[in-house]
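Thread: Newbie trying to understand structure tokens

Hi all, I'm a second-year student working on a class project, and my supervisor (Dr. K.) asked me to get a predicted structure for one chain before our next meeting. I've only ever worked with sequences, so writing a 3D structure as a token string is new to me. If someone could post the tokens and maybe explain what I'm looking at, I'd be very grateful. Here's the chain:
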Amino acid sequence: MRKKQKNHGKYAMSIFLALIMVTSILGFIFGGSFNTTNPTSRYEGTKFTLSQNGWDFSHEGQRYTLSYIPQDVEFLSLPSTIDLSNLVQLDITSEFNSTANEDIARATFELGNVLVNKDIFVRLGFTTNASIRHPTITCESSSSFVPILYYNSTPMDTITHQGNCIVINSVDPQFILSHTNLIAYKILGIV
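---
Reply by user tm_fold:
Sure, no problem. This is what the structure looks like when written as tokens:
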């Protein structure tokens, strides 16, 4: 009878390969989560942290997320005759069939979150009676108590005002979003 010889080399190699496979999987799963840091920025004592949704920051005990940091928009201009500091309500309007509807919706969403956290009532509408669920809002109905933000889809990038109505004329997503973020920072008193 022949004695069985044990081949320790095969067992050692199998255990070594299994160990490498297990540790590489663990390294892949847990390796990057402990040392990743999101970019940060500071503006007038407020810390901004870049996330998947934009720049996150806290102001007066509330959390906000906007697409731009103040340094990116502070050089932009808004009509100085409109006071945004003591708002109670802001009406936001655009054309129903605007070519920039998605960009206006994103800008309105970000601004709406700021306004709601500041206890400012937001009323959304369109410039024409296109929907039963949304009121017709035009610049003619603006007042010092209820200013209007009107997104006008035009190929020229300008900001104008008609009485208490701020008109953002643009179809460029960056122009619409950056100026809306500037309005949000002005309402918060950051810029």
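A couple of things are worth pointing out once you decode it. The first helix runs from residue 8 to 30. Strands lie at 40-43, 46-50, 55-59, 62-66, 89-94, 121-126, 148-152, 158-162, 165-169. Feel free to ask follow-ups in this thread.
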